[in-house]
Amino acid sequence: MDFLHKNFVYKTLPFNEFVKRASEKQHSDFFLCEDESYYLRSLGGDFRKEPADLSKQFPDLAEDFHIPQFFEPDQFFSSIFRISSCGLQLWTHYDVMDNLLAQVTGRKRVVLYSPQDALHLYLAGDKSEVLDIDAPDLKRFPAFVKATRHECVLEPGDLLFIPALWFHNTLALEFGVGVNVFWRHLPVNSYDRKDPYGNKDPVAAARALQALDKALKTLDELPADYQDFYGRRMIQLIQKRTLCSANRQDCDTTLPSSQFTKLQT
Ligand SMILES: O=C(O)CCC(=O)C(=O)O
Ligand SMILES: [Fe+2]
Predict the structure, then answer these.
(1) For position 68, what pLDDT does the model report?
(2) Where is the JmjC domain (predicted)?
(3) Atom 1 in ligand 1: which residue has the minimum CA distance?
(4) What ipTM is given for this predicted complex?
(5) At what angle are helices 203-219 and 224-238 packed, to 10 degrees?
(6) Which of these, 203, 167, 186, 179, lies nearest to 71 by C-alpha position?
(7) CB under 6 Å to ligand 1: residues?
(8) pLDDT score of 106
C-alpha cells in the first residue's frame, strides 16, 4: 500500500465475501482490478473513539486467543484483528505503545528499524516515505542506507514483541490472519485520550512538536540567511539535549570535548 499516492480505497463487504477475496489471487468480483489485495484492520464499536477489542467485536474468536501475562490488566489498550491477502505490504510506521503481534495463520515478513534510525527513514508523521524498503530510491533517500534492518518471518503461532516507537514494515508472504495487542507502558495520562489507534504521539511529545513548529514559523520574520543560521543553532540545541543523552554514537563528534563530557551526565 502506498500512502503517498493513496493507491487503496476503504470498502465494506460481508465478512465471508471479504475472506474469500482476501484468500484468492484473482478475483471475479473486484473494486479496482482483478488482482487487487485486501486488508482488514478491526476497529472499535465507535471507531472514532473506542480502540478495537477482539473480545467485543469478535467474541467467538476471542475465546481462542489468550494474551500472555506480559503486562498488568489495567495497561491493556486494544486487541486488533488483522487479515491480509498474500503480498500485502504495510508501510513502515511506528506506534506509541508496546505491542505483541501474533501470527495465527499464514506467514508474514516483518522488518524493524530502531527509533534511533528515525533520521534515516524520511518520516512523514508516523510513516516512512521510503515505501520500497527492498529496492529504495537512493537518489531520493540517500541516508536510508544508514538504517539498520532487523528482519524476521513470523510463522503461524509466532509472537513478535514490537516495542513502542520501533518502526515496522509487514509483508504477508501468504494469506494470513493475526492479532496484535497494544498496551500502555507509560502512565495513563501520558497518552492522548482521543487516540483509538494507539499511534498518536504522547501529549508531551505532541506539545513539543507544536512548539517547535511555532519556533520555526517565528524564524520566518528574518531574512533567509538568518533563518538558516538560527535553524542550525536550534539543531545544535536539539542534538545536545536528545541524541547525546540517548546514544553516544549519534553525537556530533565535532562538538568540543568539554561540552561533550558534560552532555553525558
Ligand atoms: O501485521 C500487520 O499487517 C501490521 C501490524 C502492525 O502494524 C502492528 O501490529 O502495529
Ligand atoms: Fe503498527
Answers:
(1) 84
(2) 47-200
(3) 170
(4) 0.99
(5) 150
(6) 186
(7) 82, 84, 90, 95, 99, 101, 168, 170, 178, 180
(8) 98
User: pTM of this prediction?
Assistant: 0.90
- List, for residues 180-215, the tens digit of each pLDDT value: 999 999 999 999 998 899 889 999 999 999 999 999
**Mind listing the pLDDT tens digit for each residue in 64-101?**
999 888 999 999 999 999 999 999 999 999 999 999 99
SS3 for 236? helix
Ligand 1 atom 7: the closest Cα is on which residue? 168
Helices (H), the chain: 15-23, 54-57, 59-62, 203-219, 224-238, 244-246, 257-263
Q: Please answer whether residues 66 and 50 qualify as being in contact, where contact means their C-beta atoms are separated by less than 8 angstroms.
A: no
Tell the residue number behind the cell numbers 541516508, with chain if given: 143
Could you count the other beta carbons within 10 Å of the beta carbon of residue 216?
Answer: 13
Does residue 59 register a pLDDT over 70?
yes
Instruction: For residue 124, list its beta bridge partners.
Output: 127
Distance CA 36, CA 25 (A): 8
User: How many Å is the Cα radius of gyration of the chain?
Assistant: 21
**Cα 178 to averaged position of ligand 1 atoms, centre (Å):** 9
pLDDT at 260 (0 to 100): 32
The Å distance, Cα 97 to ligand 2 centre, comes to 9
Task: Extract the C-alpha cell encoding 96.
Answer: 506509541
The domain defined by 15-199 carries CATH number 2.60.120.650: yes
| Ligand at shortest distance from the CA of 167 | 2
